[in-house]
Write a structure and sequence with these properties.
Blueprint: H1 2-9, H2 13-30, H3 44-64, H4 74-96, H5 104-133
Length: 135
Amino acid sequence: MQKLIKRILSSKYLLFLAIVSTLVISYLSLSDISSLPKLEVQFEDKWYHLVAYFALNSVWLLAISSYKSRFARFDALLSVGIIGFGIVIEVFQELITDYRVFDFYDIIANSTGVIVSYLTYQLLKKRILENINTN
């Protein structure tokens, strides 16, 4: 399992995965998803937002981790940028679609996902970087 984790973390495909994840979240955020199956969980939509932005921020942090050794604060800037991305998507939902609406609570869920991802990454960063560098 540890070998697999090392391979994933040192993979050059992580940046590609981060870009694709961003595009998928953009597409899903701006399309009509009312026909997708429902989980029947309280605050289901907010959980989707939290998980999606946790994953998005995590994959970006992992993708840039081997490129940014000189920029100590880049993790925080990247995470703030992803929060900004979530806000822009919410505004676009209101402005360019007639089936989606701006929801402040979606922004809170997105931001919570990013913050939890950032804090998790900070707790595990030393191990992550060791795994990348020992390959």
